[in-house]
Fold:
Amino acid sequence: MVSSALGKWKDRSPRWVKDAANLSTRGYALATSRDRPPPDFLVIGTKRGGTTSMFNYLIMHPGMLGLFPQSRGKKSTDYFFKEPQRDARWYRSHFHSETYRKRLQKQLGYRALGGEASPYYLWDPRIVHHVRRVAPEVKAVALLRDPVERAWSHYQERVENDVEPLTFEDALAAEADRTAGELERMLEDPTYYSEAHDWYTYRARGEYLNQLQNWASVSPAQQTLAAVQMSGAVQLPQPAAV
Structure:
């Protein structure tokens, strides 16, 4: 109730109030980053596969924490692809402190877990290597969706965001040219973020095998769970090697 009320208050606040509150919160979080552990879980994608919904469902549980402060309602730090120049201290500052979790544990009877979600984490092949360095014990949940439905939903989102002028058929035909050389540039430059690789990969992003194999090649099988979205529902298999 308190976090919900704070969220509503922030939504109605002037921009300068939001900026000031964010600056103050970020300063405090950085100053206490030693007391803040890396994430316990990541929801890593796929795009338009239910990543945001899964994250929101998880943090409805009293023992699951989102990003600090919770009232901001953010689901991702974008650390692994848009903020690679930042250090692990900056990343940990986005998660709830152990001091807070110990207080919460007295109420719950168990330690609360924290995490974040981004549909790009599965898709960018560099990210799992970075994750293993920063949060080697993290558990990952990958949500998969019918590739055709996923591609169409992805396209509609791009149109709604005014960054896709082509028809769906033309966008599919243009995908290879739009993204040519982008992956190679990403692999050469760890700091490079490619909008084309993120925005216009309607067909390629639905080819899940290589993405899952890439994640599994670095992350232990028992730390990764792949779930399949079917007809609006999500089926959760037992954790197994990809």
